[in-house]
Amino acid sequence: MVLLPVRPEAARYLILAVVFVCAACGLVYELELVALASYLIGDSVTQASVVLSLMVFAMGLGSLLAKRLRCRAVVGFAVLEAVLALVGGGSGMMLYAAFAWSGGAHLVLVSFSLAIGVLIGAEIPLLMSLMQRVSRRDAEGTVADLFAADYVGALVGGLAFPFLLLPWLGELTGALLTGAVNAVAGGVLVLWLFRRDMTPRTRRRLVLLNAAVLALLAAAAALVGDFEAAARRAVYGDQVRVAVRTGVQEVVLTGRASQPPDLFIDGQLTVRGSDEHRYHEALVHPAMNGPHARVLILGGGDGLAAREALGYPDTVSVTVVDLDAGLVRLARRDPALSALNGRAYDDPRTEHVTADAFSWLRGARRGTYDVIVSDLPCPGTAGGKLYSMEFYGLARRVLAPGGRVVVHAGPARAHPGTYWTVAATVRAAGLAVTPYRSDGDHGFLLAGVGHPPALALDPAVPRLRSPLAERLPGYGPAAEHGRPEGAWPQPSTLVRPRYAR
């Protein structure tokens, strides 16, 4: 037993409180790395698997390495928490910097996942040693108390990240604040509760170490805005017009003031303003060859697909279902983007619904829409459920008799396996499919109930900016070049997603 400033029972509760805080901070570091890696690299399932599996493995290594520190558990724990606060708190900025200035973040992601895992894994053995110094309870009871506090702390950290830190502070500032909390918790425990267990010289060194860590974290937090601006310029160039975090994704508009803007979503070029009409005309107009009074657009919050549908005077309504109200707000209010979409959201025929497309379709009325346009991110980027057989089954349910569905299915030539898997999935939902590939390797699927729809344009098609009418007859054969031999691929379902690239 050591000489303590409080009763042993109070010291025991203080250690359990620090266990709680450390567990919460550790889980925030993990979630922050997963979220940022998913945003920067894509494929959230893979990034979560990599980060979590590496961290769990490294935690085992950390537990083994902590045995060497048990003879100096007090000082070892203080140094460990200071290093963990700095590494975990700064991991987001380092990952973002690697992506912005080198173009790759995989090595940094792996390195920080391992480093944070080793440091977290060493915490419990050292805290166990500290607990045994202040409490005479049996080892089994002590272990149970430590793990109970650890698990509850992980729960709080896991809930705090998406509901508090991420929406209020953002990923970078949230991680830095978590690091500061981590450093303070470790420093208070050692420098106050176990101060008599150290020499004055050791105490001074630990005070200086924690002060330096907190100063670095505070300086980084103060510079987050400038850092993000510099990183954004490194990624997008010097012509960034607008950059906003909408709560769903990062939306950036770039380009000269005299030119149509380019639209980036989560770091990926989504719309090239100079030639986006080639994509949107090829997406929308073949589906409008027939009844098109009521049009449903799933995704397409930028308003560009809506612009094409509204070009038909006999279109009665266009409903845009997009999860990101911030993108729609930008498409409505930004002068450059609203000019590009023809001020589609100012048209009284346009209605916007902020909702997840899958959930919204479940509640939509049967047989409502003549045309359904699925203008969603490429398979593998969007959630798998938005390219599942169940999703297309719901779309078929709300399709009016004689209606058509058109699906953006990703690059047909660059990723033929993914493209034809989408085709097989649409087909498995009971829709007959007409594949076609436009200029720029944009792969589409035109579908309807019964027979495959003809790949043609409505006689009253509005004036087009691209040579779509001349080239459309060749778009069908262009898609067929990549068709896999033999049987169709297996369809993708909610429980068996098949969009691995």
Automatic annotation (TrEMBL):
Residues the record marks as active site: 375
Coiled-coil boundaries: none
GO CC terms, sorted: plasma membrane
First-level EC class: transferase
Keywords: Cell membrane, Membrane, Polyamine biosynthesis, Spermidine biosynthesis, Transferase, Transmembrane, Transmembrane helix
Main subcellular location: membrane
Disordered: annotated span: 472-501
Positions that bind spermidine: 280, 302
The reaction(s) this protein catalyses: S-adenosyl 3-(methylsulfanyl)propylamine + putrescine = S-methyl-5'-thioadenosine + spermidine + H(+)
GO biological process: spermidine biosynthetic process
SUPFAM superfamilies: MFS general substrate transporter, S-adenosyl-L-methionine-dependent methyltransferases
HAMAP family tied to this protein: Spermidine_synth (MF_00198)
Protein family per UniProt: Belongs to the spermidine/spermine synthase family.
Database matches in PANTHER family: THERMOSPERMINE SYNTHASE ACAULIS5
Subunit structure: Homodimer or homotetramer.
Name by which UniProt lists this protein: Polyamine aminopropyltransferase
Organism, as annotated: Streptomyces genisteinicus
